[in-house]
Specification:
The complex is a heterodimer of chains A (113) and B (112).
Chain A: E1 4-7, E2 10-14, E3 19-25, E4 30-38, E5 45-51, E6 56-59, E7 62-67, E8 72-77, E9 86-94, E10 101-103, E11 107-112
Parallel strand pairs in A: 2-11
Antiparallel strand pairs in A: 1-3, 3-8, 4-5, 4-9, 6-7, 7-8, 9-10, 9-11
Chain B: E1 4-7, E2 10-13, E3 19-25, E4 31-37, E5 44-51, E6 54-57, E7 64-66, E8 76-78, E9 87-94, E10 102-103, E11 107-111
Parallel strand pairs in B: 2-11
Antiparallel strand pairs in B: 1-3, 3-8, 4-5, 4-9, 5-6, 7-8, 9-10, 9-11
Classes of the chains: A mainly beta (113), B mainly beta (112).
Chain lengths: 113, 112
């Protein structure tokens, strides 16, 4: 069964600290993995995409990693800011099909001053 | 600006009423989707459409209906048959050759 699991479910950190969010998946055949950021009451926005051959990709203070062998990805946020408070959703795509996106339940990150 | 627009942002429905959520995109995307988001749960697919005048049921289609008369528009009707409609509804679109979905800002529906 194609599934995407994220951990932790929620996380509270102090402003300026780093944190890492986890995503495990069983989706096959794998095409790519995206991390989305969803602010409260808004639609998700793509942060980064990881394909099978990529191990690490950065987007500013966000760094995503992918281990295709163990089917795990992480999103590392450096020097957190209050504006990082949001839900982060891991989305894994199959190689084919219009209905080929599998969503994790998200990690709710709260950054406090 | 190119994008995907949902309206209204907030919607209140009385018991037994049908309501329609609007979704419009000017990204020239063929595929459009409706998702439901509940607290602590991932996005669940209600309906999707790959081309005009064609749409497919998703995982939780019961109590919902859609139409796709124009490429730009994919409205969702929440019928009285949907017993627990209070939720956050997200519309998305994407190019069928790509995997990045572009989302609207969402509509929060509340039954009163």
């Amino acid at each position: 069964k194609n599934q995407v699991e994220q951990s932790p479910q929620s996380l509270i950190i102090l402003e300026g600290k780093n944190c890492t969010l986890q995503c495990n998946y069983t989706v096959s055949p794998f095409s790519n993995l995206r991390w989305y950021k969803q602010d409260t009451g808004r639609g998700p926005v793509s942060l980064t995409i990881m394909t099978f051959s990529e191990n690490t990709k950065s987007n500013g203070r966000y760094t995503a990693t992918l281990d295709a062998d163990t089917k795990q990805s992480s999103l590392h946020i450096t020097a957190s800011q209050l504006s990082d408070s949001a839900s982060y959703i891991c989305v894994v795509s199959l190689q084919t099909g219009a209905n080929n996106l599998f969503f994790g339940t998200g990690t709710r990150l709260t950054v406090i001053p | 600006d190119g994008g995907i627009t949902q309206s209204p942002k907030y919607l209140f429905r009385k018991e037994g009423q049908n309501v329609t959520l609007s979704c419009e995109q000017n990204l020239n995307h063929d595929a459009m989707y409706w998702y439901r988001q509940d607290p602590g749960q991932g996005l669940r697919l209600i309906y999707y459409s790959q081309i005009v005048n064609d749409f497919q049921k998703g995982d939780i289609a019961e109590g919902y209906s859609v139409s796709r008369e124009k490429k730009e528009s994919f409205p969702l009707t929440v019928t009285s048959a949907q017993k627990n409609p209070t939720a956050f509804y997200l519309c998305a679109s994407r190019d069928t050759l790509e995997t990045e979905a572009f989302f609207g800002q969402g509509t929060r529906l509340t039954v009163v």
